[in-house]
Amino acid sequence: METRVVFHIDFDYFYAQCEEIRNPELKSKPVCVCVFSDRGGDSGAIATANYTARKYGAKSGIPISFAKKRLEERNDAVFLPVDFEYYIEMSEKAMQIIKNCADVFEYVGKDEAYLDVTKRVGGDFNAAMHLAQQIKNEIRDKVKLSCSVGISPNKLISKIASDFKKPDGLTIVYPEKVESFLEQLKIRTIPGIGKKTEQKFSEMKLETIQDLKKLDIFTLNKEFGRKNAAYIFNAVRGIDNDPVKKREQSIQFSKISTLKKDSKEHQFLYENLIQLCKEVHEIVIKNNKTFKSIGIHFVQSDLSNKSKSRMLKNPTSNYDELEKNATILLKEALENQTTTIRRLGVKVSELSDIQGQRDITSFF
Ligand code: DGT
Ligand code: CA
Ligand code: CA
Question: Are residues 152 and 60 in the same domain?
Fold first, then answer.
């Protein structure tokens, strides 16, 4: 098999960096982006934090109240609510630049993607490094975002490499250097190996990837089962044949709002639903899209979630179609509803450009 050239690109401290871009004064301060729960006060968790806040131990997943405690001595610390719509907008701009530079573009999430660039760099890793630098520069110039890039012959090593030096990193692992690059690393840098597995290895006195290579496949099979064993056995040797697969961001438009009161009363919810449908439809029209899937979403008073969706026969951008289907979904969802509802949402997905769609539907 010919040597591939694969990039993994990951935006640095993504949500928090987006907030800094919108408000540059934040740059010198600790910034935490928070998912406040509807319980009010400081209940909820940190989605992410900038590097200044991380120095104090404020990071993804910890309760907001813990982060506040850890940042007590910093009276300039800033705690902001998440603004997904804005992050998606930033992500789309940067992804567009990235996509234009790839033979194959695989969207992974709002802040990361894999690229196969083998053809366009003629298999040359030095040319690849220039291309990566060019991508970083263009994203910096046009979107103001910094990102970290890993370059190697496969997805596994590139993913590890993009995380190797952060933020604003560029790490290239030449094919002949893959094994030596891995050997120095801690076992948990292998994606998929979590605390538990690491602990297991630690009990066996195995700490680095180099140590792990001493295990034969039979021992691994016994400890982890065939499938995991094969993955680990290959991973520590830098082997990963998974191709970069063409995948675009699956976009959706949605609106969610907290109701004036918790309720499971049909008429009250219906009125709110109509308002949300109108807002979602406005976004659809503004973006010149058709949708093929419609969904509604409840955040219930106990903070549990419930959602329902339906797929249409044909794509449409029609408001009545949206309202009709959302209304049916609401009626269905409220059957046997015991809990009251706190937040209500409407979304459309399976979006296409209106132009392209007309060509297709004109056959029907
Ligand atoms: P880094 O390490 O510079 O790449 O930092 P991030 O913040 O970009 O971290 P990453 O790549 O793991 O996650 C990308 C985004 O995903 C991050 O900005 C916020 C979101 N996220 C990550 N972990 C959590 C979490 O535990 N809870 C929630 N709600 N969001 C998270
Ligand atoms: Ca990131
Ligand atoms: Ca990421």
Answer: no
Q: Looking at the structure, do residues 259 and 356 belong to the same domain, yes or no?
A: yes
Q: Among all residues, which ones are annotated catalytic?
A: 112
- Does 191 sit in the ligand 1 pocket, CB within 6 Å? no
Overall pTM > 0.90: no
* Residue 88: how many other CB atoms lie within 10 Å: 17
Pocket-testing residue among 35, 60, 145, ligand 1, by greatest number of atoms within 8 A of Cβ: 60
pLDDT at 304: 83
Confirm or reject: Cβ of 87 under 6 Å from ligand 1: no
Who's near 199: CB < 8 A, 6+ residues apart? none
Kindly state the tokens that stand for 194: 């979590």
Nearest residue to 245 via CA among 118, 104, 102: 104
pLDDT value for 38: 61
Q: Give the tens place of pLDDT for each residue, 290-332.
A: 999 999 999 998 878 888 999 898 899 999 999 999 999 999 9
Domain extent, residue 103, equals 6-13+85-177
Nearest alpha carbon, ligand 1 atom 2 = 13
Question: Would you say the CB of residue 111 lies under 6 angstroms from ligand 1?
Answer: yes
Across-strand partners of 349?
252, 293
Average pLDDT on 158-179 reads 97
* Ligand 1: residue whose CA is nearest its atom 6: 13
Has residue 98 been placed in a domain?
A: yes
Q: pLDDT tens across 14-73, in order?
A: 999 999 999 999 999 999 999 987 667 898 899 999 999 999 999 999 999 999 999 999
- Residue 332: CATH number of its domain: 3.30.1490.100
In angstroms, the CA 236 to CA 26 distance is 40
Of the bound ligands, which one is closest to the alpha carbon of residue 8?
3
Confidence of residue 96 (pLDDT cuts 50, 70, 90): very high
What's the rounded Cα separation, in Å, for the pair 34 and 37? Answer: 9
Q: Are 118 and 5 in contact (CB under 8 A)?
A: yes
If asked whether residues 45 and 103 sit together in one domain, one would say: no
CA of 273 to the centre of ligand 3 (A): 34
Give the orientation angle of helix 84-99 with respect to helix 125-143, to 10 degrees.
140
